[in-house]
Amino acid sequence: MATARLFGKPIADALNAESRATVTGAGPGIPPPSLVSVHRGVDSPFRFYLRRQERAAAAVGLRFRDEALAPGAGPSDLLARLSELDRDPSVHAVLLEHPLPAPFDFYRAVGALRPEKDVDGVGTQNLGRLVAQRPIHAPAVARAALAIARHYGLPVEGERVVVVGRSETVGLPLSLLLAGKAEGIHATVTVAHSRTKDLRAALAGSRTIFSCVGHPGLLTRAVVPEGAHVIDVGLSSVPDPAQPGRSIAVGDADAASLDGWAGSLTPVPGGVGPVTVAELMASCVRAWQLLTAREATEAR
Amino acid sequence: MATARLFGKPIADALNAESRATVTGAGPGIPPPSLVSVHRGVDSPFRFYLRRQERAAAAVGLRFRDEALAPGAGPSDLLARLSELDRDPSVHAVLLEHPLPAPFDFYRAVGALRPEKDVDGVGTQNLGRLVAQRPIHAPAVARAALAIARHYGLPVEGERVVVVGRSETVGLPLSLLLAGKAEGIHATVTVAHSRTKDLRAALAGSRTIFSCVGHPGLLTRAVVPEGAHVIDVGLSSVPDPAQPGRSIAVGDADAASLDGWAGSLTPVPGGVGPVTVAELMASCVRAWQLLTAREATEAR
Hints:
The structure is a homodimer.
Chain A: E1 4-5, H1 9-24, E2 34-39, H2 46-60, E3 63-68, H3 75-87, E4 93-96, H4 106-110, H5 124-131, H6 140-151, E5 160-164, H7 171-179, E6 188-192, H8 199-203, E7 208-211, E8 229-232, E9 236-239, E10 247-250, H9 255-258, E11 264-265, H10 272-299
Parallel strand pairs in A: 1-11, 2-3, 2-4, 5-6, 5-7, 7-8, 8-11
Antiparallel strand pairs in A: 9-10
């Protein structure tokens, strides 16, 4: 039997419709959520995400702008600018390009934002709140992986699942969401990674696998248990075999190897990606709700 | 063959000697590290820890005092006091009783401390820094479990280990230390907990098990794989069968059941406990070093 493909679009569409309804339902005179995306302004993979953010923001009714750091701007300029955005009441949500090359210090920079405005949940305040089971924002890509597992009713609650990859922005936050109480998932979670001696043994017995490595071909039927479900969060760019000189996006799963073996599989592209952008927009809407509720309280 | 007992005392003694050498080596005129333990002042299990902290502080050369909240003091009084302690340059380390009953908000209160002074690493800043692989302080009990595994050379690096328990102050921080890069452990970590459907299956294949639940008798040879090593972080108080009316401390492991089955086992008491207090003192010394180094930099 062919392995079912778990597409992200229906989930993203439903989430975007919900976000749009929240924004338009706020009534006249209330400014919509505002997202500012801060980046280095040079040619980086982040540029690709900016266009997607812009399109999604338009679909949901958010104000969006991107801000490039001035050429030659250093860590203290970035810190000063993020502090300004943190104080600016017309800005509800800020994204910062990640990773940032030296001498920039990503965590120091993003630490200038109050956790409500750090909408991708990557600052240490938000990461710590994940551990403490009091999340404000969790990384959108981790939320997206969870949303897919929930939407398609994959076995996770109380089940053994594996997160492959231990990055601080994807693998570890996802493992905390899955294992924790705040999201009601309660999975028994294993985190495997590049230093795992025997990936096959680590995956044995797992019902659902979340792969967040960025290593094409990592997951084949040689390591994935038969019938396990695979949420492919990995994203790599490889040469397009059909069009020399162009590249295509691929995940961690070897789809040909897993077809007819895995229980189901999210495609790349078209799986986690679209849901991630929708989750990011939903976080912006939540930030706007939190911050405007606080303003209203303070004005009383 | 009888299962080896992994005692904490040699590790605690070595760590305390190291801390003491650092403190006494600072030279004349430099005030020693100062730890303030803040608690509700009523009869709580925390009182037991205060006496142990006081003794350990004396052994290492720290100034120690405990502060009870005034009767009737509320969350805002606690917040104000912690903010004062945060600003007080003569205080390097602050502990706050945990958990705190409502209406107190533990995370809000401990958030008044800069991460350097939150020596038990339980505030969201420090927990987030664990996720981000940039720790300042990690919970002493998690560090103690790790120190024991290291001292006795238990199989953890790249190996499959299980943390049983997902509390935000013990289980989750320990799993992050074990799985992460910052401590050089690189274990493949599974977090199991009360909602794990099949504990035996979750423990199968693990070489080292860290149990942090507080559920006496949880770990028996029915669930622990033969030969696995057990670090017993659990701590419960049960009636003493030998002396009616008195109670004794026990861990999560059923020592009688595991004897001759587990590869090794930390006793309770005498295992993780003494190392925890020594790790706490070491964190106070580190806080003092961090804060006095910063003062020296700022004075320049």
